[in-house]
Amino acid sequence: MPLLLALAPLVASGAEKVTLALNWKAQPELGGFYQALAAGHYAQRGLDVSIRVGGPMVNNRPLLPVGQAEFLIGTNLIPAFDVVKQGIPTRVVAAYFQRDPQCLISHADGPVKTWDDLRQAPLLLGAPGRHSFFLWLETSQGFQRSLIRPYNHNLAPFLVHKDWAVQGYATAEPRRILEASGKEPNVFLLADHGWASYSTLLETRQDLIDKRPELVQAFVDASTIGWYEYLYGDAAEANRLILADNRDMTQGQIDYSIAMMRKWGLVDSGAALTGGVGALDSERVTAFFDAMTAAGLFKPGELDPTKASDSRFVNRGVGLERRAELLPASQDN
Q1: Cα 156–Cα 161–Cα 167 angle in degrees, nearest 5
Q2: What is the pTM of this model?
Q3: Among 308, 100, 311, residue whose Cα is nearest residue 220
Q4: What is the dihedral sign for C-alpha 118, 123, 127, 130?
């Protein structure tokens, strides 16, 4: 487990120990949680928080139901539906990315210029993408399975083939492509074309919701304030924690990712503008499940999507005053 507490404010004796398990390595896309830790927002609410990083060879999801973590970050809504299907008593309680950063990318100087062009382009796609968002691309957007090319996160094949496209995150791969090719690529955010999943979802156990709702509320509120400060305030201490936990991360990548989170409105947009960062809409969750059922990922009626989330801890406007302090109206995105 990373030694995050070395840079964090001291917590009062008797503070409740809480573990947050991440879905990936330390990165700016998880920066709001690091900010809440570094700025003492968890400590101020009586929580002694440790962050447990994930990665390509680390699956932290099993830690949540067995009690080795109190909170877990989920990538999108699909795993939340899967746990309902399996009868695992966990739920999403906040959605810190209102828009999924999943995107498709093409060359700036290639023939693939539009969303329609993408439908006809060879697409570098990893196995997880083939079994999740590509099902939606295929059934509702007219993409062709025969054009999929295997992708192991090595951009070399993409850089060679100007007429190919590649999957990515809008906060990461475009910068890598720019550095390698010298040209800003075309970025097509799936969220702009109907992909309605939330991302960077906060999950917890049903027993904590039922027996310790004040703990869940405290963690959600602290994280929400952390996200506003990370996006719009001084995130230097949080970034030091991220860099300490992930030796492959750079300050340049952090700066780029924060800029893209703001540009694309990934965190602070839609319902979050009035309900606060982390806003969660049960009707949207159900609608996304229906879309995934239509795409063939689930069978009609095999699970109740309303059991995947609980919105009682968000949509309260927490942090909006802090946002106003940090972001003058003239800079509001």
Answers
A1: 65
A2: 0.94
A3: 311
A4: positive
